[in-house]
Amino acid sequence: MSALARPVVLGAGPVGRAIVDQLVAAGHGPTVVTRSGTGLPGARPVAADLADPVQAKEAVAGATVVFQATQPAYHRWPEEFPALQRSIMDGAAATGAALIVVENLYGYGHRFEPYHPAMPLAATTRKGGVRATMWQELEAANEAGMLPVAAVRGSDFIGPHVTDSSYGQRFFAPLVGGGKAEVVGDPSTRHAVTYVPDQAATMIAVAADPDAWGRAWHAPCAPAVTQAELVDLAAAAAGVSPRHRVLKGWQLRLVGRFMPAAGEMVEMMYEFDHDHLVDWSETADRFGLAATPLAEVMAATTAWYRDEARS
């Protein structure tokens, strides 16, 4: 039986939506699990609190593969994320499903060379430590034969429905409206971004290839350009002037007194004050995947933000 015979997608955020869209387009009938039972076209909705092991087990029962694309609030990661993942792991193991997990690059820590999946996880930040520990638990379960797992690590997300990323609401909404995009850190640094549909395509490709399980893969990223160039590309797609304002660490710390998620960004400033590059050559070689060109990414993203502003 194909691993994609009975897919279950956890979460209806940007990545969860993209996974569902691509599974439906390929003729698969996914189930999507959220706390509220969000309905997505072509998917069967299920409402469950995945932090509850009993509900998690019931929600994924019968699945052949579980795509884990849900997470707690950004500032609640240390308190809630590991327990949430363990609950999901137990549910997937109980039904005999493979678990394919969305991850990011935090676990590697601050590196000056391009991030590569073979790098050791050496994070010193609070959230990077959470990510590293969570992967180590997944890896241990896989090696013990308890649960087949794989992770797909993306850089900062960009695309339709992406709002909480550094290239989300604060970046696109003001720019599309004729204002200034907010850029974190140094605008002259190169920063690889991950288009959400490319993340989803990689997760599905990994899920369909059992020989690719047991390790982490990197999602495709278009050739990295500077943050200032990202503003230029977005502005060209939106038909507006390329204007931006810079947010420094002290400003995020100040805003964080009222918006905890902004304060949590301070420890990640190294990603935006230095080049942030990704090596995803293994993904291209094995699965034949390519990154969506940035011009297409910006066209789709600015169009979505313009539609949101009108609604």
Question: How would you sum up this structure, described in words?
Answer:
This protein is α/β, with parallel strands linked by helices and about 300 residues long. About 40% of the residues lie in helices and about 15% in strands. The chain is built from 12 helices and 13 strands. It has helices spanning about 15-25, 55-60, 75-95, 125-145, 170-175, 195-205, 225-240, 250-255, 260-265, 270-275, 280-285, 295-310, and strands spanning about 5-10, 30-35, 45, 65-70, 100-105, 150-155, 155-160, 180-185, 190, 195, 215-220, 225, 245. It has a 7-stranded parallel sheet with strand order 3-2-1-4-5-6-11, with helices on both faces. It has a two-stranded parallel sheet with strand order 7-10. α1 crosses α6 and α3 runs parallel beside α4 (about 125-145). The mean pLDDT is about 95.
Mean pLDDT: 95
Major β-sheet, in short? 7 strands, parallel
Terminal Cα separation, in Å?
Answer: 43 Å
Count the strands? 13
Beta-strand fraction estimate: 15-25%
Order of strands across the main sheet: 3-2-1-4-5-6-11
Overall form: globular
Assembly context of the chains? single chain
Tally of individual helices: 12
**DSSP helix fraction:** 40-55%
Provide the succession of SSEs. EHEEHEHEHEEHEEEHEEHEHHHHH
Structural class: alpha/beta
What is the gyration radius calculated from CA atoms?
Answer: 19 Å
Q: Outline the low-pLDDT stretches.
A: none
Structure at a glance:
This protein has 311 residues and is α/β, with parallel strands linked by helices.
